[in-house]
Amino acid sequence: MIFMSRKRYDALRAAAKETLDRNSVQAESRAWGKWWDGDNNHNREAAKADSKQTVVTLDAETHAAWQKRLDGAIAEWSKSRPGVEKIIAQYRQLLAETKPATP
Fold first, then answer.
1. What is the pLDDT of residues 57-75, one digit of tens each?
2. pLDDT recorded at residue 102
3. What is the SS3 assignment for 50?
4. 58: exposed, middle or buried (Cβ count in 10 Å: 0-12, 13-18, 19+)
5. CB 17 within 8 Å of CB 9
6. Is the domain of 47 the same as that of 85?
């Protein structure tokens, strides 16, 4: 994964931009996400198999309560950082647009 400011990207030679663009497409991003999902599942199953670990799945009510607390913490944190609220809102919108519809 590569992070680069627009200014820095714009300053690159055309050949460098072409190389980055050719290798920085959504398919690679989705493949990377799939790999992370598999890694997370592997580690979750390993924890479940370990008798010293306890793995639980939150019920909907508990999940909602934790999400509410997390949202509150993020809101408080973002107040002290100019511009962050806008970035978080945009991130959440993009995330919602990429999540598959639930049946």
1. 999 999 999 999 999 999 9
2. 57
3. coil
4. exposed
5. yes
6. no
- Which residue, 19, 39, 55, sits at the end of a domain? 55
Write the pLDDT tens digit of every residue in 40-53. 999 999 999 999 99
- Name residue 25's amino acid: V
Whether residues 36 and 77 fall in one domain: no
Same domain assignment for residues 95 and 51 = no
| 43 and 61 fall within a common domain | no
Which range marks the domain in which residue 70 is found?
Answer: 56-103
Percent of the chain exceeding pLDDT 90 equals: 53
Dist CA 92 CA 70 (whole Å): 14
For 35, the token pair is 């790999």
Distances (CA, A) of 68 to 61, 62, 74: 11, 10, 10
